[in-house]
Amino acid sequence: MTKNTMSGFTAPHYAAAQVGNAILEKGGTAIEAMVAAAASVAVEYPHMNGLGGDGFWLISEPGKAPVGIDAAGIAAKHATPAFYKGLNAIPERGGKAALTMAGAVSGWQKALEISAQWQAPLPLGTLLDTAVNQASWGIEVTQSLSDASFKTFDTLAGDPAFDQFLIKGKALKKGKIVKLPKLAETLKHLAEAGLDDFYRGETAEKLATDLQAAGSPVTLEDFHSYEAKRVEPLSVTTSKGTLYNLPAPTQGIASLLILALYDRVWQQGSDDADMVHLLIECTKQAFIKRNRYVTDPSRLSVDLQSLLSPESLQDMQQHIQLESAQAWPHPAIPGDTIWMGACDSEGRMVSYIQSLYWEFGSGVVSPSTGIVWNNRGTSFSLDASSHQYLQPGLTPFHTLNPAYAELNDGRRISYGTMGGEGQPQTQAALFARHVYHNQPLDKSIALGRWLLGRTWGDVSHNLKVERDVNDYVGEALRSRGHDMVVVEACNELMGHAGAVVRHPDGSTEAATDPRSDGKAFATASSVSTASAGQGEI
User: Fold this and answer.
1) Among residues 141, 145, 254, 288, which one has the fewest Cβ atoms lying within 10 Å of its Cβ?
2) Choosing from 142, 186, 283, 337, which is the catalytic residue?
3) Domains along the chain?
């Protein structure tokens, strides 16, 4: 006997979304679909993410507690303060900026181990084949990739290895085709040799040699000793359900704090201006705590879960006023990434995020593999008094945080965004609109947004609002003391959000952000009731 169920997939690039959806249609799990899409988006959006970056997973199987995977790279053994002697800060680009291991591929591997416990796995070649072909045949340059190319040209174009991201030595223009043959070879090799080859095989040897030549402190020993790890997510229960996100070194605590606080104050509001104002004020309280406490897990001075206690939330709530804005700024954190969500036909869901940090990361391209290395380690400080002080083996602060929620009405939601400082804010905006104010999922993502502080490619710390937000609530926000600037509507500055919702009846809906080049799928499939119903809520 069979029944019709729905799977769903969303990604900020349409080609990656198609790849993930194709794996789901083959009967693959949400995890397998995500690995296939992660490889694809590493090819299609090379300025945002890649195999040389990091990743974080939130994985939900119906009826079971969600599990997290921390695939954050750690500082290399030789990445010591002494290595940066004479410098006030870690360089933003170049070999010295490439100081942490890339965790993303190990995260894929760790997630696939979980998937293999669910059902017989698809061959790795099946998961990576489309990404190999995309890199071989060439990718079409999007506006996002073109903008990043022109922005970074003066800084990065001087390195011969970076030529793969140029056309005849010039920045990329929208609509042009770029081929990535070295990356195609690397992906094909990993499909044949296995993902562990990235850390303990031929790929690791090539990467270590290239990184050393570029002046990076990363060595082959760092590759050999790295492994992503399973972690227990942070969680908070509100009037709407239970929300989950990842612990340190991510800013997941900030995302949970914003919505936990909004749950306490949202009924004070009566219009759109109140909603936006209250979410911004909740954000300020969350960021104060985040900036004070979040660091490598071994350095935490408090249990982050304790910040979500009723007593802690009550203390923060006292600083939120409906009629006035708290003075700002506090220090802000930049960042750049991609987020993708999946739900398979059996209701297993994934919220996944993958990043190089800045556009093209450190700018270091491995000539022998075509892999771009991240610059996440620039989040470390060379100030010995800082709780982000650089030490080998530790993780830097991460803006990355994939979100997931289980609602009291039976809905389950995988959601997230790119956007550095904007990630928790955009998560809160789309969740509040959809769950608290009953807006349709696509509209909750598409409606005008705001950003307090700094995001990818930006340096200012004030409140930025899209023009459509300013048109309907700008005056009310200014009257409460918000220091605002207006940016164009549907602005990539606000991130690329997405969400997948699984309903109690098994139906699925998915949406992507019009600010991205993305696509969302919700596809009907026939599955046997014997397998589809197990653990279904």
Assistant:
1) 288
2) 337
3) 7-230+340-379 (no CATH), 236-335+401-514 (1.10.246.130)
